Amino acid sequence: MKFKLGYLVLTGILLAGCGNETTQPEQSSTFTKATEQAKLALADGNTDKALASFELALEEDTTDEKTKNYVKQLQKVVTIEDFIHEKKYKKAISHAKVLLEDEDLLPSVENITQDLLASAEKSVTAQSKKTKENVEKTTSTQQTTTQKTQQTAPTKQDNMYAIHMNQAQLIETNYVEPAYAIDGEAMDSFTPMLNAFNASYAQWDKLLNDIYGTLKSRLSANEFESLRSVQRNWIKQRDSYAQAAFNNPGDYAAEIAKAQSLSNSTSSRCYELLYQYQTNLQ
After folding, report:
1. From the centroid of its chain, how far is CA 55?
2. Which residues contact 118 (CB under 8 A, 6 or more apart)?
């Protein structure tokens, strides 16, 4: 009888221990990576990229409340940015103030919103000052004619197509070619090759953000919204190709194959945008 009682107690302890070891399934690596990329983009002030990455993370884990908040709040931030881009400063101010009243507003989003609010208010002040100065100007015929000529004269824009294309050629020469010039079969070549392809990817990613920023200032709101949607899908495709390269690296080590894939995908996207929007960029 004592033996049976001891056995039952031991069995209960073991079952309780097993029960305590039960944990929730870990979030996927795609969720973690997307969240990290989103936070880095947010730290750089790139809200479009941050939003796209958080949306990708949310697709992986639709129950994560913090990610839901990021997506919801950043969508509002992007709307405020669009108002400023369209010079609808009063609307931007109104939306920013409403967002800042949100008790659940995340600190990083709050900082960006406060900066946008300050920028919009500054623009409104500048507009008011300019209007006042124009009213106070003399109404003489000569000055009026000069003023009209200045207002109707087209504003010359920089040829950003040529500038960005030149940047792309410099990346090819200074980063891509040296990366491929490394002998992968040589001893101790792993670290130099990995660093070279990572550096190449970093340069292409920076150029892509520059091109994206230029297009945001030159496309209409509808055109840019269409581009933004395509860009989000491209980010998913880029990461999918990189993971496939890591899983099937071929002649390279897995880490190098992944870095090479990221570099190549981003390079192709840069040239694709340059050719597709050449007219807008010139």
Report:
1. 11
2. none
How far apart, in whole angstroms, are the C-alpha atoms of residue 74 and residue 116?
Answer: 12
Task: Please give the share of the chain, as a percent, with pLDDT higher than 90.
Answer: 65
The burial of 201, by beta-carbon neighbours within 10 Å (0-12 exposed, 13-18 middle, 19 or more buried), is given as buried
Distances in Å between the Cα of 100 and the Cα atoms of 5, 155, 197 are 63, 36, 41
Beta strand residue intervals within the chain, DSSP E:
none
Note the pLDDT tens digit of each residue in 175-194: 999 999 998 778 888 999 99
Q: How confident is the model at residue 157 (pLDDT cuts 50, 70, 90)?
A: confident
> What's the rounded Cα separation, in Å, for the pair 181 and 193?
9
End-to-end CA distance of the chain: 92
Q: How many residues does the chain have?
A: 282
User: What is the spatial distance between Cα 59 and Cα 61, in angstroms, rounded to a whole number?
Assistant: 6
DSSP 27-71: PPHHHHHHHHHHHHHHHTT-HHHHHHHHHHHHHH-TT-HHHHHHH
* Residue 151 to residue 137: CA distance in whole angstroms: 15
Are residues 117 and 97 in contact, defined by beta-carbon separation less than 8 angstroms?
Answer: yes
> Could you say which DSSP state residue 137 is in?
S
Q: For residue range 63-80, list pLDDT tens digits in order.
A: 999 999 999 999 999 999
pTM above 0.70, yes or no: no
